[in-house]
Amino acid sequence: MEVRGVALLTVCAMLSLGALSLVPGGWSEADPNSDWVQKVTAYCVQRYNMESNDVTLYSLLSMKSAQQQVVAGVNYKIVFIIGQTTCRKNGNMSLTNCPLKTGENVKRLQCESKVNYVPWEENITLQKQTCNPVSEHATQ
């Protein structure tokens, strides 16, 4: 009887520890390479390009981190680096054929965004986004 009690206690402890990362409403790490994270990141870059006062478009350089929270849909907190391209806005917001600028004075920005994504409705809502300049070595 004692052995069964210890085994049951051990199983309960293991299950409760594993469940901590799966608590509904809790934040957990997300795969930055997943289709959903890539989709919301592309949306955030597009919104930055539409709303910024820069004359050139910016393109995704790298993902720094991604977290997710299951709600009515999924909230994402993502951190990524964007870089200035050679393409001017001029009403064209497409990043196709827009190489990154090169040289010493090329602007790189680290963006932190919070996004709600409801996949079954194909609805993405940008809740908050801040982008700040970073040095060249910080983009690695």
From TrEMBL:
<protein>
    <submittedName>
        <fullName>Cystatin-like</fullName>
    </submittedName>
</protein>
<feature type="signal peptide">
    <location>
        <begin position="1"/>
        <end position="28"/>
    </location>
</feature>
<keyword id="KW-0646">Protease inhibitor</keyword>
<dbReference type="GO" id="GO:0042311">
    <property type="term" value="P:vasodilation"/>
</dbReference>
<dbReference type="GO" id="GO:0031982">
    <property type="term" value="C:vesicle"/>
</dbReference>
<dbReference type="InterPro" id="IPR046350">
    <property type="entry name" value="Cystatin_sf"/>
</dbReference>
<keyword id="KW-0838">Vasoactive</keyword>
<dbReference type="InterPro" id="IPR000010">
    <property type="entry name" value="Cystatin_dom"/>
</dbReference>
<dbReference type="Pfam" id="PF00031">
    <property type="entry name" value="Cystatin"/>
</dbReference>
<keyword id="KW-1015">Disulfide bond</keyword>
<dbReference type="InterPro" id="IPR027358">
    <property type="entry name" value="Kininogen-type_cystatin_dom"/>
</dbReference>
<keyword id="KW-0789">Thiol protease inhibitor</keyword>
<keyword id="KW-0732">Signal</keyword>
<keyword id="KW-0840">Vasodilator</keyword>
<dbReference type="InterPro" id="IPR018073">
    <property type="entry name" value="Prot_inh_cystat_CS"/>
</dbReference>
<comment type="similarity">
    <text>Belongs to the cystatin family.</text>
</comment>
<dbReference type="GO" id="GO:0005615">
    <property type="term" value="C:extracellular space"/>
</dbReference>
<feature type="domain" description="Cystatin kininogen-type">
    <location>
        <begin position="32"/>
        <end position="137"/>
    </location>
</feature>
<dbReference type="GO" id="GO:0004869">
    <property type="term" value="F:cysteine-type endopeptidase inhibitor activity"/>
</dbReference>
<dbReference type="GO" id="GO:0005737">
    <property type="term" value="C:cytoplasm"/>
</dbReference>
